[in-house]
Design a protein that fits this description.
The complex is a heterodimer of chains A (about 400) and B (about 60). Chain A is of the alpha/beta class and about 400 residues long. Chain A is built from 7 helices and 27 strands. Chain B has 2 helices and 4 strands, in the order βαββαβ. The relative contact order of chain B is 0.35. Classes of the chains: A alpha/beta (about 400), B alpha+beta (about 60). Chain B: Pfam families: Fer4_15.
Chain lengths: ~400, ~60
């Protein structure tokens, strides 16, 4: 098992539940025991939950050998070995690849102290320490889910927050109506929004610590701390050389979650019956639009894929089941409860089908031509199961 | 007889269970979880999947 996030933990659990009584080794480059990620940017930043409250599994679980703090650096499928950063080699009959993702770092050079990313528990601890240590003006670059959740949690702590989104609208993957509701709620919470303006870089004080974010128009937004929240990159660099197909850095797997070997001309080849894939790093043929597979970086997908990956690895390709999943996502910020089903970002038009943006409770359906591809709710969650059924 | 217990201190009305097993779980107007008084026959598997789909582990099934 490479990766001890939600997908890895669920895979380990289902292997054992299905009767696997052989040796199980869990490898993670994090020292932390497995923990749940959704509360990190919400309750853990806010201080209403701690690392102990979000634990997914203890070391005693799954009768596994745990290797923590040492990442995998190579996969030799011919000799069936996982190579670790300390030089050790782990032989396997089957391997679950659930390496997850890392926060995307700021692409430019010369990043001063006090510019951070947030992905794991250690990052959140550092963020809280910065705030406790007096960081009272925070600029967040990127208004995706992480950026918006952090803006909400930090402003709730009394921090002055500016949210910068070069591409125009917060949570734009959920469509324009929801973006409008979120923008208004953020404004009411005292968060300053700088939308549609790029970031040129950072200005540092004499000691080397960041003092401002420099926008593309030359304006400076003063900051004692900057969070760069511009997405994630799959943690798959170590699989280059494994012979697996890695489209845009994700691990290509068939609809039963078996990893595909790289084929000719950048395409994908045969599936490896000893390698299954789950979670944020997967590029699964069962999760797709008309154009092809799309990545899903959501809790529910990691949980469901992890479970099936463990089961299918044990069953073998002939008896394995296909992955069937209606994507589902939730977030909460500024008192808004936002949920989605399907792939709203893949539609070409959105229709308000209940409530309205003005009342802060709205159901937006996303269509591609005449076909429903997703739905997003703000405080209208009771309507979503009906949409999920239509997506099935 | 399958009985479903909801830990109301933990349940946040995320509604993931209602997506997996809408025959048994639903949200009300205030996004609070409503559970059917009786689980229809043949839905034990779906209910188990709904329990596993709960991100905050608020559901427990007894007597399955």
């Amino acid at each position: 098992m490479v990766g001890a996030g939600l997908a890895g933990v669920r895979a380990a659990g289902s292997l054992r539940a299905e009767g696997f009584d052989g040796r199980l080794t869990v490898v993670s480059d994090e020292r932390e025991l497995p923990y749940d990620r959704p509360p990190l940017t919400k309750q853990v930043v806010a201080g209403t939950m701690t690392g102990d409250d979000i634990r997914l599994a203890g070391e005693a679980e799954f009768g596994a050998r745990w290797i923590r703090g040492t990442g995998a650096v190579g996969l030799d499928r011919e000799r069936r070995r996982v190579r670790l950063a300390d030089g050790a080699e782990l032989p396997y009959d089957g391997v679950v690849l659930a390496p997850g993702a890392k926060a995307r770092e700021w692409p430019g050079a010369g990043v001063p102290d006090g510019v951070v990313t947030v992905r794991g528990l250690a990052d959140v601890r550092r963020l809280r320490a910065e705030v406790a240590g007096g960081a009272d003006e925070v600029v967040i670059v990127g208004a995706g889910f992480v950026g918006v959740e952090l803006a909400s949690s930090l402003s709730g702590l009394g921090v002055k927050v500016t949210l910068v989104e070069p591409f125009g609208a917060p949570l734009r993957a959920l469509g324009g109506t929801v973006a409008e509701v979120v923008s208004e709620a953020a404004g009411r919470a005292g968060v300053a929004l700088r939308l549609g303006v790029g970031v040129r870089g950072f200005a540092a004080a004499a000691g080397g610590r960041v003092r401002a974010v420099v926008l593309a128009d030359g304006a400076e937004v003063s900051a004692s701390l900057v969070v760069v929240a511009i997405g994630m990159v799959p943690a798959t660099g170590w699989l280059v050389g494994s012979g697996l197909a890695l489209p845009s850095g994700r691990i290509h797997c068939d609809e039963r979650l078996f990893a595909r070997a790289a084929g000719g001309a950048g395409g994908a080849g045969v599936a490896d019956p000893a390698v299954v894939v789950a979670g944020d790093a997967a590029w699964c043929e069962a999760v797709r639009t008309a154009e092809g597979p799309v990545p899903l970086e959501h809790w529910s997908n990691a949980a469901a894929q992890g479970e099936l990956a463990g089961r299918n690895l044990l069953a073998g390709p002939a008896a394995a089941e296909p992955y069937v999943h209606v994507p589902s996502f939730w977030t909460a910020a500024f008192g808004l409860r936002i949920r989605s089903v399907g792939l709203p970002g893949t539609g070409d038009r959105e229709v308000v089908e209940a409530g309205s943006a003005a009342e802060g409770a709205v159901l937006v359906a996303h269509y591609r031509g005449e076909r429903l591809v997703g739905a997003v709710s703000v405080n209208q969650g009771k309507l979503l199961p009906g949409y999920a059924r239509r997506l099935n | 007889m399958v009985e479903i217990r909801v830990d109301r201190d933990v349940c946040d009305g995320l509604g993931q269970c209602a997506l997996v097993a809408p025959e048994v779980f639903a949200l009300d107007d205030d996004e609070r979880l409503v559970v059917a008084p009786e689980v229809p026959d043949g839905l034990a598997g779906k209910v188990a999947a709904a329990v596993r789909a709960c991100p905050v582990r608020a559901l427990v099934v007894e007597g399955a």
